[in-house]
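Quick illustration for those who missed Monday's session on complexes.
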Amino acid sequence: MKNKFGLENQQDKQTKAAVIFPSLTNSGIRLSPEARLKEACGLASAINLDVVLSEIVKLREIKPATFIGHGYLDKLLPTLQSLDIELLIIDASLSAIQQRNLEKALNIKVIDRTALILEIFGERANTKEGKLQVELAHLSYQRSRLVRSWTHLERQRGGAGFLGGPGETQIELDRRIIDDKIIKIEKELSKVKQTRSLQRSARQKVPYPVVALVGYTNAGKSSLFNKLSKSNVFAKDLLFATLDPTMRRIKLPSGKEVILSDTVGFISDLPHELIMSFRATLEEVLAADVIVHVRDISGADNIEQKKDVLDVLHHLGLKEIEQQANYIEVLNKIDLLTAEDKHKIELQTQRNKTLVAASAITGEGTDLLLKKIDNILSSQEKIMEIKIPASDGKLMAWIYANSEVLQKETKAANILFKIKINAANQARLQAKIAPKS
Ligand SMILES: Nc1nc2c(ncn2[C@@H]2O[C@H](COP(=O)(O)OP(=O)(O)O)[C@@H](O)[C@H]2O)c(=O)[nH]1
Ligand SMILES: [Mg+2]
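Prediction with magnesium ion bound:
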């Protein structure tokens, strides 16, 4: 069996990978080389690669043929071999030629930053629009290099994994096939955009309020996701765990159930051609009932990162999100702060109730976070009366599970309910009782 990297896969064994960040003087990159390397490793782990080697290589100039000079490559080769590394990620933009030459020199599969990010988006795109945007980005990337294919195109032709192995026969890529595909996808995309019922349909798919975790890669979203769901998840509830590892049902202190959703992380210096597909992967956030923005408060770059996140959410249609009642900001990694800095953060959280200081590792602050989520959901609650057919047992069960029943009265073939229900569930209920069209 070949895995998604076209490498031999032995029973769920993780692919061993090396991550290299080529650091150019005057690159204009915002983050320090160390932070960039850490981020790239975080991205690699996001698609379940086992990063066994990570290094910064200082470059004075880019070599046209191999990007990185031979002196370094000669030293790298035996290390890669001794560590059994199967995949090399260069955290930069490689030309097709450079990629191929590196693969030849190192006898290993090589991918660049864009390919890595596309892979993550491909795994994480959930909406129709998201999937189309990612496919479009894939095709444009492929067309721009006309190197051997690693998209669905090849899978459809019955090829091996899309990233292939070194020394594999090159598949002649037909530019026209790609162009035709691009045109088709663009057409589909404009159709999907016209419908614009994304928000409603996404809400109705999930039978509970959705709490979305957003924020930069490495902020601690997945750690928090795991921490929150470990002690609160339903042991028997494998539905969401198996269907989608980024969604999990958890119970809040009040007993209310919500779906926690771990979204694709923001990425620094996102390659320009990937911006649309990144936004599309975030469309789901629009349908969330509560948005939890996770920040690495210990990182030097965290103020700028916050600005980026809010900007993108704003562009997605979540305007002035900080001012909204359903927004929470988690100041994560407080365990890494000095006592003095921690004190400052605590004062900040006392002044601003949308903030929660927390540590996804120690668990500090996570109870308060759950309480805040609870409060938001109950503040959205309303009292309403509805009439349903007494024969609709399924709907009745839903009402009991998702609202507080204050009064119930049977009238002939109908049941009259007086219930307390939050805004999100109210919308879901209305969709359920609305006449099907
Ligand atoms: N010290 C400390 N490390 C954390 C905390 N939260 C996450 N991390 C670490 O930060 C790195 C990135 O975390 P991860 O949850 O994968 O971030 P994500 O990219 O936002 O999902 C991992 O090495 C985590 O162990 C925290 O509260 N304290
Ligand atoms: Mg993550």
